[in-house]
Structure formats: structure tokens, C-alpha cells
Amino acid sequence: MSEKTGAPKRRLLKNVLTAVLVLGAVGGGVAYTAVTVDGADRTAPTVKWAAPLATATPADPAAGLAKGRASTPLSKLLLPVPAGYELGADVAGYGNDDELAAEEATALFKRTGKGFYGKKRREYEKEVDRLGIQGMAMRSYATEDSDLHVEMLVLRMKDKKMVRGFFEVRKDMAEVLKLRKGPKIKDHAQNSACYLGPKPVDPEDEDKSAPLQDMVCWAYDGEVLVSVMAAGAEPFDKKAVAELVGKQLRHIESPGEYV
């Protein structure tokens, strides 16, 4: 992409991402900056994880969903629940293993432009349309001892350049906000980035829940953007999160193969 043609696209992406990041959309990964900037309550929530589902049988083939659904091309791209994890809590407004078709995912992104009015709102919606969103799938994971919760979101677009631009703008926003850099993803240093949220502050009241450390990762592979949000009590296992992201990227390279 030449510098001349790249600049307008970068401005387009920056406008879209600014709205998405500041106003929030769905899932921790997409709405991460809103949580960070607004200083939302980041103490450990009381959450009931989803109970592991039964193993599939010939009589009930739909029962084998403990590793997550793999019934559509997009859901097959999501990392199956690996050893040591189970399906986690619901992703905000959705289930813990859900998918949005292109039209619904596009409408969701357009709703993040609620701060725009009139002409600006129409321009924003046109920019979202230009992203060429093909669909979005999300899945949450929780460690079996419930000390770490991770939300994984995969977003497919029709244009590889848009996906990479989306990724680069997110990195730019993280740098602007001076987020602490997280661990690098092995074998994917060029197409992934992780950042840590503010350091947890010990609660003054001993009766309060323990504060959480959070971490966000973004990555891409071809037409697929990966957005990850993790949160856990101290000591926060950022290495485990990085390994999960690495597994997700390897799974995209070889979909359908359980990791």
C-alpha cells in the first residue's frame, strides 16, 4: 500500500477504532480501553462459570460442547477449550460461546457510534460498512481453579489490509494511553501485541474482593482479527494468557484440530 493511498485508510480506521475503543462494543477485548479510561470496578466479581457439558454420544451428538461449538466456519476458528480450562462466564450481553452473523456484527459496531449525530453519524456508519465485517464469534475460558478468566473474540473481515490496519491502530491507541507492554506471543511477534492494565491496588477494606489484574491482546491472521481480554487475581499469570493466545493463532492456522 502506498503512503498516499494508505493515509486515508488509516484515518478511516482511526476514526472507527477511536469510537469502538472509547465507547466500547462487545467483550472485554473490544471494550478494553473504555474499562481502563473510565476506571470501572475492577475487583474480582462473583461469577458462576458454566458447568462442563456432557460428552457427545450417538444418541445425543449435540452434547459434546464442553470444548466449544465447531458447527460453523467461524466457530471452528475459535480455540477449543484446552486442558486445564472450562467454558467461562458469559461475554457481556451474550453467552460464553456465541456468534454474530455479518449483519448483526456490523450493526453492533454501528451502535458504538452513539456519540455521533447527524452527518458525523452517517459518515461513521459508512466507515463501519467499509470494514467489510463478515461475522464475529466469541468464547470465554476459565481455569479450573477459577483464578483466571479469558474472553476470546475472532472477527472476520473481507480485506486483509483492513484487518492489519485495525490491529495497528489498536496498538497505536495502547501506546497513546501508555499501557504497560505484556508478554510477546511466541512465533507471532509481528502479528500480535499484549498490554497490561493498571496495577491492582490493594483494597483498604479487608472485606472487599481482591483486585484484578487485566491484560488485553490483539493479533491477526489473514482476514481474521483476534481480540483477547483476560483478568485474574494476583499473582496474575500473564504467561498462561500469552500461551492461550499462541494456541488460538496456531488453531486458526489449522482449524478443526483441537489443541
Quaternary structure annotation: single chain
Main sheet, how many strands, which sense, barrel? Answer: 8 strands, antiparallel
What portion of residues is helical? Answer: 25-40%
**Total strands:** 8
Shape: globular
How far apart are the first and last residues' alpha carbons, in Å?
35 Å
* Integer count of domains: 1
Mean pLDDT: 76
Low-confidence stretches: 19-63
Distinctive features:
alpha+beta; 8-stranded antiparallel beta sheet; 6 helices
How are the elements arranged and paired?
Layout: H1 3-23, H2 27-38, E1 85-87, E2 97-101, H3 102-111, H4 118-130, E3 133-143, E4 148-157, H5 160-176, E5 180-181, E6 192-196, E7 212-221, E8 224-233, H6 238-253
Antiparallel strand pairs: 1-3, 2-3, 3-4, 4-8, 5-6, 6-7, 7-8
Helix pairs in contact: 1-2, 1-5
Structural overview:
The protein is an alpha+beta fold and 259 residues long. It has one domain. Helices cover 34% and strands 22% of the residues. The protein contains 6 helices and 8 strands; from the N terminus they run H-H-E-E-H-H-E-E-H-E-E-E-E-H. It has helices spanning 3-23, 27-38, 102-111, 118-130, 160-176, 238-253, and strands at residues 85-87, 97-101, 133-143, 148-157, 180-181, 192-196, 212-221, 224-233. Strands 1, 2, 3, 4, 5, 6, 7 and 8 form an 8-stranded antiparallel beta sheet that branches. A hairpin with a 2-residue loop joins strand 7 and strand 8.
